[in-house]
Design goal:
With 132 residues, the protein is mainly α. It contains six helices and no strands. It has helices spanning 3-22, 27-34, 37-61, 69-85, 96-104, 106-127. Helix 1 (3-22) crosses helix 3 (37-61). The mean pLDDT is 86.
């Protein structure tokens, strides 16, 4: 996959992630996010821009796009775990968790980004032919 296609797929997956994370809970669980319509969709997209923006930044730093799996799995995995566990009907302040979740997922994504950069550079050093 080309770099541009990978970056577009990161953004599209990030937009669908809150809804995909709630699918295992059933229709009622998913309905907690869809009740707001387009406004709710745009709100979640703006909140998750922190994570997919960080992944796009990582994609510009890496030489090989296969190294991007590490920060993507850690950042999106943590975000999916949080989105899938917040019960919006439990408390009036539960929706603030949707705001805070992307900020908290920055730490796993940053650690994954550093690990991915290390793997990227290490593999690049091995693949380069040595000069005589």
């Amino acid at each position: 996959m080309r770099k541009t296609g990978l970056r577009i797929s990161i953004v599209l997956f990030a937009l669908a992630l809150p809804y995909l994370a709630r699918l295992p809970g059933g229709g009622e669980w998913l309905g907690q996010l869809t009740v707001g319509g387009w406004r709710a969709f745009l709100f979640l997209a703006a909140c998750s821009a922190v994570v997919w923006g960080g992944l796009l930044l990582c994609s510009w730093l890496y030489r090989r796009m296969s190294s991007l799996w590490i920060p993507a799995l850690l950042g999106f995995g943590f975000l999916a775990l949080v989105y899938g566990s917040i019960d919006l009907r439990a408390d009036a302040q539960a929706a603030f968790g949707l705001l805070i979740a992307p900020v908290y997922s920055l730490l796993p994504m940053l650690l994954g980004g550093l690990l991915g950069l290390w793997v990227d550079r290490r593999h690049g050093a091995r693949a380069a032919p040595s000069a005589p």
